[in-house]
UniProtKB/TrEMBL annotation, chain A:
Protein name: Origin recognition complex subunit 2
Origin recognition complex subunit 2 RecA-like domain mapped to chain residues: 289-449
Region (Disordered) residue spans: 166-213
Gene it is expressed from: ORC2
Any one cellular-component term (Gene Ontology): nuclear origin of replication recognition complex
Job of this protein: Component of the origin recognition complex (ORC) that binds origins of replication. DNA-binding is ATP-dependent. ORC is required to assemble the pre-replication complex necessary to initiate DNA replication.
Compositional bias per record (Acidic residues), positions renumbered to this chain: 190-205
Record field: transmembrane: 12-34
Superkingdom of the organism of origin: Eukaryota
Any one GO biological process: DNA replication
Protein family per UniProt: Belongs to the ORC2 family.
GO molecular function, one term: DNA replication origin binding
TrEMBL record, chain B:
Family assignment from sequence similarity: Belongs to the ORC3 family.
Subunit relationships: Component of ORC, a complex composed of at least 6 subunits: ORC1, ORC2, ORC3, ORC4, ORC5 and ORC6. ORC is regulated in a cell-cycle dependent manner. It is sequentially assembled at the exit from anaphase of mitosis and disassembled as cells enter S phase.
Single annotated GO MF: DNA binding
Gene label: ORC3
PANTHER family with a match to the protein in the record: ORIGIN RECOGNITION COMPLEX SUBUNIT 3 (PTHR12748)
Protein name (Swiss-Prot/TrEMBL): Origin recognition complex subunit 3
Presence of the UniProt keyword Phosphoprotein in the record: yes
Statement: the UniProt record of this protein carries the keyword Flavoprotein: no
Domain of life: Eukaryota
Segments forming domain Origin recognition complex subunit 3 N-terminal: 1-107, 108-309
Keywords of this entry: DNA replication, DNA-binding, Nucleus, Phosphoprotein
One Pfam family linked to the record: ORC3_N
Length: 579, 677
């Protein structure tokens, strides 16, 4: 399979949810490959090409462009006819399949329009999988200013007079630079591509700020467009898009501005202040959100019914589903044994889930040789005693800690038991890829879309998220915690290292304190008496991930504390206060 | 008790012991959520009953389908075992001994093997079964020493031998030292190296450790040779067993569950289409298909109060008498029933709408009609399928399920495919036609229905007439017109004469007797189809037995979380229904939820995103939106808040998997998606 094909598979993946559909996509590609091979044979072409990339892409685009289907139907029909013409290769069965494929697309399309409750309807596949054209670095700012204005026109007028808005760094120069680069881009390409690029623009519905230049382009490229038949145009367009994808991903160079957060005062926020700040924000659309959640609450009884009948339930959709599940728990599960599992908790593991079942639910005090043993024991216990019932509520089944193959297998096996009922939520974009056929049949899922738009407060509070990371309140507490358990000497050693690191704050070439120097310093401070004691001490630090060693270019070991300097300073201050 | 903590992730809740005793019965959940819960208990019971029947039926079917396979497998095991016996007596043939008897099973569904294992346990006294995963354990053992394994084996056999000779001997006396049957459920998923080593090692020890391997293969038998080099595969003595393909399996399941009057529950065209599509395009899993069936059954009984009548005919008639006033009202509200009423005479209309007892009587007869309709329907459907399944290019589908779908959807005789199929039928040869007719005859004869009894007779008559044709050879001359065509001509003349001939044929179109008869048969079939294959929507009270809500099925079985996520982010109006959020395609209003705005902005970037730019762009949008509200806070504080909101949006996007932190450049994040989503 060519690498392009792999890419198509990637795209295809986006269409649907699970592993099995990836397989069917592969199967489909394979079939296409076979057909194109046969075609080649028949045409006695010398050029050997394994997979008709265009064929594949055409077909995929046809599938996804549910709305466009009608327009392109003619082309599709041509394709199928072409294939039907070759009965001598015993392709009849494949013909059927192709025809059915078309049928399938129709059914899918129709259904998407019908199901009003499901989110897949609105602008379904078409928009999700369309390609974007090349991004320009200023586009975001441009779009931002656009968005700021768009919805209410009367407001946008007043906005223009507002200095604050126009003060945005790039905003004033955006239109010019954008149009410049746009025109540059179009002239650097062949004429044909020009028309293509423009079509992309229309496709992706980019807000074109400066209407003038595109329309000029159109004037230039219009005759070209007329010359090339529409079919060819489409093909060119798609292949061009594909090229773009690989272009964007091949070069390691990315054009973004070099500004860093350090220059902004606001960059550092710790979890607590973040929470305080956010509590001041009044949530918008609360009426609508309430309505949504009420709608979901009406399903509680149905969920209970379906759980009891052997299905398991998985919730998906944007927004934290934690509150919803909590309400489910408090309204209907009060009288039954249930375990709530926070998948987003960083320390969660299958072991701890199984432990809480064996120890707290089944009151078993023994230990087990392995997780599998434990699982077997639980399974037997539940099979023996059919009056035993257990509800498992898992928030974020797709979390970092639980998404592993083994964990999923074990949870799946638990959930396949008749008297264990599982209701779980998933959030990650690619979560369904966790499950292959075997696991899916273990889980026996029923999917429920519960888009709540509620913020993922709990879920993100543990995570060292991008901008919160620097605050380091968690590292600080753990630092204090660990160091308290050490001997005074060890604490002294560590303090030495911190001080040295803080002294070298402004030295950009600082890579750490070399072991020899460190030893020297420790000796001078009467903290160690031999090189061995220091090493033993360092091993302990390393075990707690308090230090990191690095070999320098001269082969000497350098020691470094992998905690940011602000935290270290806080730590020192606190230490001094205490002593 | 709170369910969030910084120190643990699992929280167990146990109710008081007293309370726990009273567990809520399942059927209570059947009605509580619904306001108009008519006969919910009865409905739930009916659901349970029908589902149990369907389940046992499918299980029976599967057993039947696998029986052959299992039988031959067991036969194979027995044979190879006696082979061991022989060779243990004859130590000379070492080479043959090294060949491990191997059965390769080609399976479409994995759960077959589980059953196989249980069956083997009963039948052949399997000492050890190694399933997926635990092969590693077995492998370790052999690595330590194959000897220990074989000594274990001799121990076990020695132990069991004196212990239970009586029991064993009675059934099969030759099972003195039973072979070890090792079943590798999913051969493709094993590491080839492990497998190869295992085979080589165990072949060395075969004389003391009789081993029979059974491979489960999901793809094609070639895989054995691809996984194992010749040196290894030559150590195996392979026999192939092929199970039924899953498509055939589906056909039988459909045939037995849906195309009968045995089960009152029916699927509408759309639902059936969705289920078969999921099967054909997603998983090839009968299990999932059955699951879909179960779900549709459940949904039907849950959502349709009148489904209480969806049971066998006598029971339904009995239940009609107990229908409440509300239920009668429900019936009057059914669209199909209203259509029916409108067609009646005005007095009857009034009676139907006001008199409960009259209504109930009418319902009884209508249900009976529905039942008759179904029994006729399936007969004629099968008959039509006999005709169309052999046509070239299968205009109406090769499988009966395709035909069934089209028939359910609309009047089949209005479709182009049907017309072309009839045209093709008019060209059938005699022997083909006769075999088809004979099959149809069998179909009709199998039933005792009165109306269609005459049909069987008609077909018998047709058959007899065809027979007669054979005897009384037709005397028509076909030679006269053809003789002219034999002389040499050029292309032009040939064409001309051919045209003339065609013209001649048309003008004095004198059909042979066979042709006349064939025409009659085709017309007869056509009339049958038009009379009996009406789509179910035309039948009054069809709502009682047909499940139509296909979209719920798709929603719950074949969901598309990615699309849902995309829609929620891209078009919040879709969910929130607030006029302020209404926007044109591709734009997003600035009052939208924070995460939507951040998402929309991030779409504008390529692989890397500068957090500073992003946050400023975000601030621009959000400030513009807030301008309309009263600005109470100071600008500095507001900026802080906006920044906090931005941080929240970004970390949520990270949780959702759209971005991840990167070290390529300071204060940048990497996008994980390409294009619109």
């Amino acid at each position: 399979m060519s690498y392009k094909c792999m890419y198509y598979v990637n795209v295809y993946l986006a269409v649907d949810i699970n592993f099995s559909s990836l397989l069917s996509a592969l199967l489909f590609l394979f079939r296409l490959a076979m057909m194109s091979k046969l075609e080649l044979k028949e045409d006695r072409m010398l050029e050997v090409q394994f997979v008709g990339d265009d064929d594949v892409l055409n077909h995929i685009l046809d599938r996804e462009a549910g709305a466009k289907l009608k327009k392109e139907r003619t082309q599709l029909l041509v394709n199928t006819k072409k294939i039907i013409k070759k009965p001598e290769y015993d392709l009849e069965e494949d013909d059927q399949e192709v025809l059915k494929d078309q049928n399938y697309v129709e059914v899918l399309g129709r259904d998407i329009q019908e199901s009003l409750k499901n989110g897949s309807a609105a602008d379904g596949g078409n928009k999700v999988y369309s390609f974007q054209n090349r991004k320009h670095s200023e586009k975001m700012a441009k779009l931002a200013s656009e968005l700021a204005k768009t919805p209410r026109k009367n407001v946008s007028l007043s906005l223009k007079n507002d200095p604050e808005i126009i003060n945005i760094p790039q905003c004033s120069k955006v239109p010019r630079s954008h149009s410049d680069s746009e025109s540059e881009y179009s002239t650097s390409n062949s004429e044909d591509d020009d028309g293509v690029a423009q079509e992309n623009e229309e496709d992706t519905n980019e807000v074109i700020l400066n209407q003038k230049i595109p329309s000029q382009n159109r004037a230039v490229s219009a005759p070209v467009c007329k010359e090339t038949p529409s079919k060819k145009m489409k093909r060119d367009k798609t292949s061009d898009l594909v090229e773009e994808y690989f272009e964007a991903h091949s070069s390691s160079k990315v054009l973004t501005s070099d500004r860093t957060l350090q220059k902004l005062k606001r960059a550092k926020l710790d979890q607590q202040t973040l929470r305080n700040l956010l509590s001041k924000v009044s949530p918008s659309f609360s009426a609508e959100l309430k309505q949504l959640s009420q709608q979901y609450e009406q399903l509680f009884h149905k969920w209970m019914l379906q759980l009891r009948l052997g299905f398991n339930i998985v919730l998906y959709g944007l927004g934290s589903k934690r509150d919803l599940l909590e309400r489910f728990r408090t309204t209907v599960l009060q009288d039954s044994i249930h375990v709530v599992i926070n998948g987003f908790f960083p320390g969660i593991s299958v072991k701890s889930i199984l432990n809480s079942i064996t120890e707290e639910v089944l009151n078993h005090m023994g230990t087990f040789r392995s997780v599998l043993d434990q699982l077997d024991w639980i399974v037997n216990k539940f099979k023996e005693d059919s009056s035993l019932e257990l509800f498992l509520l898992i928030h974020n089944l797709d979390s970092q800690m639980l998404r592993g193959d083994k964990s999923q297998q074990i949870i799946g096996q638990l959930s396949s038991l008749r008297n264990i009922y599982l209701i779980a939520s998933i959030d990650h974009l690619n979560a369904p890829l966790m499950w292959d056929h075997a696991k899916q049949s273990l889980y026996n899922w029923l999917w429920y879309e519960t888009t709540t738009y509620s913020p993922y407060t709990e879920e993100t509070s543990y995570e060292n998220s991008l901008l919160v990371k620097q605050s380091g309140s968690l590292p600080l507490s753990s630092l204090i915690h660990v160091l308290r358990s050490l001997t005074p000497n060890a604490r002294g050693i560590f303090r030495l290292l911190i001080k040295y690191q803080l002294d070298n704050l402004d030295n950009p070439s600082y890579i750490g304190l070399s072991f020899q120097d460190f030893y020297q310093q420790c000796r001078e401070a009467f903290l160690v008496n031999s090189d061995l004691t220091l090493r033993a001490q360092l091993t302990e630090f390393r075990d707690h991930k308090l230090i990191r060693t690095k070999k320098g270019t001269d082969g000497v070991e350098y020691l470094l504390i992998p905690v940011d300097n602000g935290t270290l300073r806080d730590f020192l201050e606190r230490e001094e206060e205490e002593s | 008790m709170a369910t969030s903590s910084v120190s643990k992730g699992c929280f167990v809740f146990k109710p008081n012991f007293k309370k726990r005793k009273i567990s809520v019965p399942v059927e209570d959940y059947f009605n509580k959520g619904k306001n108009e819960s008519e006969d919910s208990k009865l409905r739930f019971e009916t659901y349970q009953l029908i589902w149990q029947q369907m389940k046992s039926e499918t299980e029976r079917l599967q057993e039947e389908l696998n029986k052959n396979l299992f039988d031959s497998l067991i036969e194979f095991l027995r044979k190879s075992y006696s082979g061991f016996q022989k060779s243990s007596r004859d130590w000379g043939c070492q080479i043959k001994l090294r060949e491990i008897p191997t059965a390769a099973l080609i399976l479409d569904m994995k759960h077959f093997l589980q059953k196989l294992v249980s069956q083997l346990m009963m039948d052949c006294c399997v000492d050890e079964e190694t399933k997926e995963g635990s092969i590693q354990v077995a492998q370790k053992k052999t690595h330590c020493s194959m000897d220990s394994l074989s000594s274990w084996y001799t121990n076990v056999t020695r132990k069991t031998d004196p212990k239970m000779p009586r029991k064993k001997r009675t059934s099969s006396s030759q099972w003195q030292s039973p072979p070890v049957v090792l079943i590798l459920k999913d051969m493709e998923s094993f590491t080839t190296k492990v497998l190869q080593d295992f085979i080589i090692i165990s072949s060395q020890h075969l004389h003391e450790f009789p081993l029979i391997l059974i491979f489960g293969i999901a793809t094609s038998p070639i895989i054995i040779h691809r996984l194992l080099p010749h040196a290894v595969s030559s150590l195996l003595c392979i026999e192939l067993f092929q199970s039924l393909s899953c498509k055939e399996h589906l056909t039988t399941v459909l045939d037995k569950l849906l195309l009968t009057t045995q089960f009152p529950f029916k699927l509408s065209e759309k639902v059936l289409q969705i289920l078969t599509n999921i099967f054909l395009y997603h998983d090839f899993s009968i299990q999932n298909f059955i699951k879909g069936l179960q779900l549709s059954l459940l949904e039907h009984f849950y959502s349709q109060p009148l489904s209480v009548l969806c049971c066998n005919l006598p029971e339904a008639k009995r239940r009609i008498n107990f229908l409440s006033d509300n239920q009668c009202e429900n019936i009057r509200r059914l669209p199909s029933f209203r259509r029916y009423v409108e067609k009646q005479a005005s007095e009857k209309q009034v009676a139907l709408l006001t008199n409960e007892r009259f209504l109930k009587e009418e319902i009884q007869s209508l249900l009976e009609n529905l039942h008759v309709y179904h029994s006729n329907y399936f007969l004629v459907l099968r008959c039509l399928h006999q005709f169309t399944s052999s046509l070239p290019k299968y205009p109406l589908g090769r499988q009966i399920r395709e035909l069934y779908c089209t028939c359910l959807e609309k009047n089949i005789w209005d479709s182009e495919e049907y017309v072309s199929a009839l045209q093709l039928l008019r060209m059938l040869a005699k022997d083909e036609l006769m075999t088809i007719l004979q099959k149809c005859f069998k179909i009709f004869k199998s039933t005792s229905e009165k109306q269609l009894g005459s049909t069987a007779k008609r077909i018998e008559e047709f058959l007899a007439q065809f027979q007669n044709l054979d005897e009384a050879k037709e005397e028509e001359d076909t030679s006269g017109s053809l003789s002219k065509g034999l002389q040499k001509t050029d292309l032009y003349h040939l064409q001309k004469s051919l045209l003339e001939m065609k013209e001649l044929r048309r003008t004095n179109k004198k059909q042979t007797r066979f042709e006349v008869l064939r025409e009659k048969v085709v017309n007869f079939i056509d009339s049958l189809v038009r009379e009996y294959l009406l789509p179910p929507e035309t039948q009054p009270l069809h709502e009682v037995v047909y499940f139509t809500a296909g979209h719920t099925l798709r929603e719950h079985l074949n969901a598309a979380p990615r699309i849902a996520l995309h829609t929620a982010l891209n078009n919040p109006y879709y969910y929130l229904k607030n006029e302020a959020l209404k926007s044109e395609e591709g734009c997003i209003p600035n009052v939208a939820p924070d995460i939507c705005i951040a998402y929309k902005l991030h779409l504008e970037c390529s692989r890397l995103i500068n957090l500073v730019d992003w946050s400023e762009a975000f601030a621009t949008v959000v400030t513009a939106a807030e301008k309309m509200d009263a600005d109470s806070a100071t600008s500095e504080e507001r900026n802080e808040i906006i920044h906090a909101r931005f941080i929240r949006a970004v970390s949520e996007l990270e949780l959702l998997g759209f971005i991840k932190p990167t070290k390529q450049k300071t204060d940048h994040v990497a996008r994980l998606t390409w294009g619109g989503c």
